[in-house]
Each structure stands twice: as C-alpha cells, then as structure tokens.
Amino acid sequence: MDGVRCVDSLAAGVAPHNSFRTLGPTLLISMAYLDLGKWLVTLESGYRFGYDLVLLMLCFNLSAILCQYLSSCIGMVTGKNLAEICRQEYSRPICIVLGLLAGLSLLTSEVSMIAGTAVGFKLVFEYDDLLTVVWFTSVVVNLLPYTLSLLDKRMAGMFNTYLAGFTLVCFVLGLLVSHPKTSVDMNVMFPKLSGENAYSLMALLGTNIIVHSFYTHSSVVQVQRRFPVLTLGSLFHDHFFSIVLSFSGIFLVNYILLSSAADESKNAMAIHFQEAVQLMNEIFTNPVAPIVLLVILVFSGHIISMTCIIGNDVISENLFGVKLPLFAHHILPKVLAMMTTIYHAKVAGSDGLYQLLIMCPLIQAMFLPASVIPVFRVSSSRLLMGRYKMSTYVEILAFLAFLLTLFTNIIFMAEILFGDSTWTNDLKGKGNTGRPIVLPYAAVVLISCASIVFTLFLAVNPLKSACIEAEELLSLVHPQRKTLDNAHHNQAASLEHSKTTSEHIGHSKSAFEHNGSSDTTIQSTDHMVINPEAQPSPSIYREETKTAVVDTASVKSL
C-alpha cells in the first residue's frame, strides 16, 4: 500500500516543486470536508433558517483553519504526530477515550462518504434498488486505493494532489457558474439562535471541523522536522497560506449552497430526501451538473478513504497501543461503514440514508470540545514547542474557539434535555414530521452528556510535561528561597551581634567615663575646686564635704 503513504512523500519534498510540500497535504486533508452529507447539512440549514447561521458558520470555518494550522505546527516542530504526544502527556485511560472519539469520527466520515456516493449514483442513474447502489459504491470507492498502490509514492502523491486540487476547483467554479449573482445580505447575517436551530448549528459545527483530521495532518507533516531549523518559519507561512486557501474555498462552497437554499425557501419545519433532491436540482441547473457532482463525490471519496487509513493507523498505534497492518485499517472501517449504510438503507430507504448523512456531522460535533484541548495545550507548551509556542494573541483565539465548540454543545444538550423543538420531538418519537430515527434519543443524550463531562475533566488535567516543568520551577525556586532566608537570617544575626557589641562598648564607655569623673572629683577636691558638670554620688559628696571642712579648720588653727 505504498500509494496510501504518498502523503508522507509529498511532505518530505520529493515532488518536482516545493509548493507540493505544503499545498499537497493540505489539499488531501481538506477533501474530508467535501462530501454529500456536509452539503446536505448546509442546504437544510439555509432552507429552514435562511441566513441566521451564516456568521457562526464563518466562525466555525476560522476555528478549523486555526486547528489545522496548529496541528501542522505540532508535527513540524516536535517531529511527532499529535497522537504520539498525547500518549506521552496523558494517562492511558485518557488516551483510550481520545482514541474512541477520533475513531468514531473516522467511522462517521466513512459512513458519510459511502452513503453520500450511493445517493449520488442513485440521483444520476435513477436506479431504484438502493441496496445494489450501496454495494456498488462500496466496491468502487474501496478499490481505488489498491489501484493507486501500483504506483510508487512519488507518482501516487502527485496524482492524488492533482486530483484533490481538480476536485476542489471544479466544485467551487461549478457553483460560481451556476450562481453568478450570489448576494451577501449583511442585514440578516447576525446569528439568531433558538432551540429549533440548535440541531442545524451542531451539524454545521461538525461539517466545518473534523476531529480525526488533527491527528492525520500532524502525522503527514512530521517528516519536515528533519529540515534545518531556520526553514521552519517559512514552512509555517507556507502551511498557513495553503490552509487558508483551501478552507476559504470550502467556506465559499458552503456559503453558496446555504444562500441558494435560503433564496428558495425559509422557515420550513422539516426537509425530506425528495425535497433535498428537488432543491439540489434547482441549484445545479446545468444538465451536466449531476455527472460532475458524481465524479467529485467519487474522487473525494477515494481521497477520504486514503487519509482515513493513515489516520486510523496513527490513532490505533499511539492511542490504543495496537499495531495493525494498513490492510486491516483499510478493511475494518469500510466493513463497519458498509454494514451501517446497508442497514439504514434497508430499514428506512432513501429517507434513512438522508437522515444518516445529517446525523454523521452531528456526531462529529459532539466529539470536538474534548478533542481540541490537546491541540491547544500542546501548542501552548514551551517545553514541547520551545520558541515556536503560540503567542498570547493566538492563545486568546484558541480559547475563544474552544468556548465556541463547548457552548454549542451545551446549547444542544440543554435543548435535548429540556427543549420542545421539532427535532427533539422527532428524536423522542413524538414528532409528526415522519422522519426516520437514525440514532435513539437515549444514545444522543448519553453521547452528548458524556462528551461534555469528559471535556470538563480534560480541561482541568494538565499535560505531564507541564507538571514536570512546574516541579522543576519549584525545585529551582525553593533553594533560592532557602538561600535568601539564610541570608536574611545571617543579616539579622549580624545586626543583633552588632547591636550587642555596641551595647557592650556603650557600657564600657560609661564605666570608663564614670571612673574618670570620680578621679577628677578627687583631684578637684584636693585643690579646693569643685567641677560643676560632674555629678558624683551622694556618699562621695558627703565625704568630700567632710574632707573640705576638716581641711578648712586645720587652716584656721594654723
């Protein structure tokens, strides 16, 4: 499966042009954001709520740019992928939970890819047997990576890069040609949140940010760590430019789809498969458009399948500690995705596949708050990133992005538990819209609550390196503080000794002055002169008086 590892060769710079070093991996990663499920989510949001969620969709897109950029920086600076660092910095139970979140995100991407391509085949060829279409789609999408494995890494990498770029450019240009007069109404772009659009808001979050792409992106660029350190700055700029370019095209696609759906109809209670098909026919008016759409779905499905194999390998080896061959990583997720898609197609038909495509981004959005914490924590660690840790301004943006994902999940959970909206009643089985239930209400509540609880738990658990760094700082501060305390103690002792010495000197001086004044008094008495400044004791004064009287009497007698 050398063709699967072609992304590593692109990042290593073996392509004929240096732009492949950064643009190639970014284009391949961005293909995970192009599938029919994500387009249907955008169409339904615009069809039901108009432009109410456009600004929030832009914020989600900017958050995705930030997360992908930080993931690539982690791989380039540390020379390790995000899963490896999580294995070193977190305990094994936390790594297993993070692996479950990323693994389920991979599985939902596979399901969305197979179900979306099957729906595309059904729309183009108008084939009624949905199960046959699903089987055919699964075989076609899964055989493409094996076909490219006949090529070497260099040729496969270049081919997949050209394929990804062609897919993205064709879809963007196709939409622009179909809707040359797409307007931007600034008066209705301010977000209007309600319990009714919480479902669509969560689905848009999962449409614009994908969990497992963090691990995949950091993995494919980690080979660039061997480049000289002086070129890391230029690599950062090149990666940032590539990510902004790719995700700007993705946002443009989503905005055109949402605005087109908003112009057709607004404030509908629900949308079904046939209504979505009619809406897409009104958007893609060109007769060739369905065929081009199918080709785009097949190409993007192939690249999604290839990147999912890489991501599954990285996640299972580092977060679960299980090393499997690439063949197993290719087969196991595809089999599970095929079984899920066939089951819903058999039980609920086309409407079941449609609801499955809507539910996949919703599930991915539930895993986001906990999954972005390692990205932001590692990027802000000075011990891991060194002088390339993100700046204070980027830390503020990362914190705002985290709050955006967390509050979106909290609003969704509150609406599930206490709300009475149309989609909540549908999940509870009390609605009258006739939409099939893809995931039971209890499962949605359990996943949502467990995700938020794990997010809060992970938020208060720092990295191991951060704890070690804090202990080292304390170990450095403690001797310094002890030295300062000893210095203060010695200084205080010195001052006390100086004071005591001064007191002894003062007492000695007083005694000396005292003795000197006595001698002076006696000498003064002998000469009949009394010093007025001397203050002798009373006894001495009396003796001196007597002596003076006797001496005076003797003089008189003589």
UniProtKB/TrEMBL annotation:
Membrane-spanning ranges: 53-74, 95-121, 133-151, 158-178, 198-215, 236-257, 288-312, 324-344, 356-376, 396-418, 438-460
Skewed-composition ranges (Basic and acidic residues): 496-512
Record-linked Pfam families: Nramp
Membrane topology classification: Multi-pass membrane protein
Record-level Gene Ontology MF annotations: cadmium ion transmembrane transporter activity; manganese ion transmembrane transporter activity
Subcellular location: Membrane
Annotated Polar residues bias: 515-526
One cellular-component annotation, GO: plasma membrane
UniProt entry tagged with the keyword Membrane: yes
Principal place of residence: membrane
Segments of this protein annotated with the region Disordered: 493-558
GO biological process, one term: iron ion transmembrane transport
Highest taxon, organism lineage: Eukaryota
InterPro entries xref list: NRAMP_fam
Keywords for the protein's UniProt record, in alphabetical order: Membrane, Transmembrane, Transmembrane helix
Family named by the database record: Belongs to the NRAMP (TC 2.A.55) family.
PANTHER family associated with the record: ETHYLENE-INSENSITIVE PROTEIN 2 (PTHR11706:SF87), SOLUTE CARRIER PROTEIN FAMILY 11 MEMBER (PTHR11706)
Protein name (Swiss-Prot/TrEMBL): Ethylene-insensitive protein 2
